[in-house]
Amino acid sequence: MTSLPEGAARRCHNMVNPLHSAVYFSPALGKELAPYGIEDRSAVYFAGRAAPLGAASAGTVTATFYNFSHALVARSVPAVWESASPATVLAARVRAVDTMLRELLGDEAVSSPEMAEAAGLALKAAEACTRAGRPLYAANADLPVPDDPHLAYWHAATLLREHRGDAHIAVLQSAGLDPLEALVSHTASGRGMAPKWVLSTRGYNQQDWTAAQERLRERGVLDADGELTAEGTALRKELEENTDRLDRGPYEYLGAEGVERLTELAGGFSAAAANAGAFPGDLFGKG
Q1: Which residues of 143-153 are buried (b: 16+ CB within 10 A; e: fewer)?
Q2: CA–CA separation, 231 vs 269, rounded Å?
Q3: Cα(76)–Cα(40) distance, rounded to whole angstroms?
Q4: Which InterPro entries does UniProt cross-reference here (predicted)?
Q5: Cβ distance 262 to 12 under 8 Å?
Q6: Model pTM score
Q7: 108-165 residue pLDDT tens
Q8: Calpha distance 190→182 (Å, rounded)
Q9: How far apart, in whole angstroms, are the C-alpha atoms of residue 285 and residue 21?
Q10: What gap in Å lies between CA 73 and CA 252, rounded to an integer?
């Protein structure tokens, strides 16, 4: 096993993750769930992402997703499982991913040798993921690996994304950042979702946002203009570095050459998906 260049694991994750996340912005998942009466945007998201957990309660979803308002979660969960069982939602999710990838990448890319290679590399990396303390990863890891390479790749991307995400939640809690403080400070870094997207998808209002900003100012993380202070910048850097440390296993197992190749392949697929309109143009930023 060769050591990885500094930052290589995070760069690889950042290239792999977008294709996983794209399904939550695609109309395909909503279309698959609409026949079961699941049409609200939040309900579609919670059902699609939480289904691997089984018929999870609102409390379980709030805990594992971390940065959503519990009131928003409770509007859809657990009622959503009365409309469609987790198994039904999982089958719909696979169909939606197939539709989405074909629409964003095209049939040629979906069936390409490069897609099969990316799937193999991502699945190999995921072999080194660990279940303990990582509920969303562990739930997805119990699902079968799809036969089709493009679906296997999405499955592996999901495993790697949730593995890192579960670790990141532990890091946020260790740093004493509550769910909205984590979102506000991430947005202030210029890397997180724009405030209007946080407020419209996470179940908070402007008063909540302003109160979180004030708490972060009192802590010295934000300045009077809502920008990160030097202390805040150092905190966000530390958060990512600690997440890297907890998430290094899969990428070290894959090795430097494998990580470099997966980064290259995943980057190409993610760029193609973004160029095809996988994400709203104003999703990220401080505005």
Answers
A1: eeebebbbbbb
A2: 36
A3: 9
A4: HTH_67
A5: yes
A6: 0.96
A7: 999 999 999 999 999 999 999 999 999 999 999 999 999 999 999 999 999 999 999 9
A8: 13
A9: 17
A10: 36
Half-sphere exposure of 15 (CA within 13 A, CB side): 21
- Coil, helix or strand at residue 111: coil
pLDDT digits (tens, 9 = 90+) for 15-37: 999 999 999 999 999 999 999 99
Three-state secondary-structure class, residue 114: helix
Q: Which one, of 54, 63, 58, 86, lies nearest residue 74 by Cα? A: 58
Alpha carbon separation from 114 to 102, 108, 154, 250 (Å, rounded) = 15, 10, 14, 20
Distance CA 163, CA 131 (A): 8
Nearest to 150 by CA among 209, 106, 184: 106
Q: Which residues pair with residue 119 across a beta bridge?
A: none
